[in-house]
What we know:
The protein has 4 domains: about 1-40 and about 730-755; about 40-195 and about 655-700, von Willebrand factor, type A domain (Rossmann fold, 3-Layer(aba) Sandwich); about 200-325 and about 585-650, Sandwich (Immunoglobulin-like), CATH 2.60.40; about 340-580, Rossmann fold (3-Layer(aba) Sandwich), CATH 3.40.50. Strand 1, helix 3 and strand 2 form a beta-alpha-beta unit. It has 17 helices and 32 strands. With about 750 residues, it is of the alpha/beta class.
Amino acid sequence: MRFLLEAYRKQRRKLRIQHLLLLITRCIVIALIALALGRPLLEKAGLLGGATGTTLYVLIDNSLASSVRDAQTGETALDRHKVEARALLDGLGVSDRAALIALGGPAQGLVVPASSDMSSVASLVRDVRSTDSAADIAGAVEQVAADIGDSSIDERGRVVVAVLSDFLEGSADPSRALPAALRAIEGVRVVASQPTRQSPSNVQIVDVEPLSPVILTGTGGSSGRGERENVRVKLRRSGSRLDESQLTTVRLRASGGEASAERAMVQQVMRWKAGQAEGEVTLQIEPAAMALHQNVRSNVLIAEIDRDAVTGDNVYRRPIALREALRVGVIGRRRFGSISGSVGELTPADWVRLALHPSDAAPIDVIDVDPSSIDAPVLASLDAVFVTSPELVPKESWRRMRGFADNGGLVVVTPSIESSVQLWTDVFESAMGVGWRMAREPIEYAQGISLDVQIGQSQIVSMLRGELPELIKPVMIWKMLPLEEWGRQADILLRAADGQPWVIASGVGEAATGEANGSGRPGTSGDRTQENGGAISTDDGRGLVVYLASAPSPEWTNLQATPLMLPLIQEMSRQGYGLAAGSWTAMAGRRPALPARTWRAQAVESSGTELEISEGGVATEAVRQSGVWEARDEAGRHLGFVAVNADPRGGQMQINDPEQVEQWLGSLTGAVRGVNGGNDSGEERVAFLDPEAPSAVLSSSEAESPLSLPLLIAALVLAICELMMARVFSHAIVDRGEHGVRMGKGMGSAVGGRAA
């Protein structure tokens, strides 16, 4: 026993080391197998040195299309998107983060950068409301890319962009390319709602157009003549009922800015034919019924149709100017006493005065303005000015008239008959900023020249379009001061037979801003496209300048002696002033322009919200909800109403092909079905949510296997090593040699040797 104990003490340290190595090896094998099976969860927690979790960007569609309501359940599309958003948030872990972006244009980052406070993000999801604007997926993608670029890979972890929408045409346009901002960012995955296969029926009002942009309510106006004003309401329908006949009731009323001051006016039924997508109805209103407030110089026409699946575009508001009578100043040589004598003695100013006020019943008040005393107070009392003696206008007075036009006034100019060289043109061009270059000397036509029979589509002469071909036949031109250059946004009313513009109109400041904003009207929001070959856009008033290239004088033209003179001057005054003053409408999702000198713009609804105003006379932020705002100056005087209407693009209910939607969304990361598209791995990184389990897509957001092959290989290698070490370190090995059975390579051999 003494020898046995001595041998045991010598082998004990070696045995402990062997046992410890076996224990460690076996533990590591078990740990590697556990890590291989649980790698995704461990990587989310950052325990394997990988990413610290998932960053989820929820892009929720709250555009006009999301307000479509299911006729059976009463649930809106936005309600379904909210359920999906909350399910995705519930599927995130404690180390994950989430961001929330509303797609109602322009895209609004409600939670950006991403936050780990899921309860706050879920609360904001519940508060998301539908807007009246179209979806802005492109803008949301830009915000996501900007936020990802501001964080490191370890901070953001895996990135999942979830686009929650029905992808109707009002929300998604696969024909328009999405930004490529996410393609350069590694590890971004796009998931989306299932594109809807149902196409709700929707009828929308896309425009309300009074044929007269200003309504004269006093004696001698439309009401004084017993006439009514025509208002054209344009409609569009889309969705499942497009191949059916349908009836839509259109109602038109006026509002003075207060709910109690509204009056129901007229209604008419639109009869849709099968397959008809667009239509219009014309309603007639009584101008006298619109004079609701004595001190209010504008009103709001409100068109409304029957309620349908989308209610946001069932109402359209259009501000319209109201006047008892227009106040028009004539700037020319003063005439003392009444007009008398022969026709040949009448000056251009006399002809203009007669055409503006042919009788006491005419709704235009003519005010003579001395060219040497044109100041701001005089101009502020006028709606329009006719300049027939431009050579008498001082340089400073031209600048004042530019300010008058900037405030929504109309300026009409004719050449001077007093001098052969027109030196006033340089000052005029510089001050008014219309982008014209005028000749210095007039051109003469010895045999005379007629007007071109091809009539343009100018809104200024829209009321005369049917009669113009006959009215222009007797007009002859013997002398005119031509334009050598004019902007592409110019509105040509009439041309001479040689193609020279004879009556032309442009918005002030067009030379500086027309190319930039694409409308020819400074500050315009660009909401309404110009149709009919360059007609001036009239969404917001910024003044109008009209040029008549021949002075109304017998040496220049016989216009003043023809039937065209009276209606041309009348429509130039009425329609021109209406265009200059503007209707002040904008689409939801844009920053509406406001009347000049606006100090405060307050909503007329009960909410009473105000618009913040920039120095440029536009709202500082986009307005996403439709409504009416009243603009007032610093003294609290009424300047006009500003209307924001639903974006017609957002109300398109046609469905998109799901495969096109998948390809379209796949272009965000450069990965599309069956096409590498810039993704080197060729993986498909677009997945549609399961309506029953939306959060399941997060668990499969990795393209790799949930098992870790390297860890499994390491576990197998260590298991083999453990097996070999266990055999080497084992003391139960039996050596069957020539001397019989004995213990080998173990403690027994040592003891046996010592005993021997």
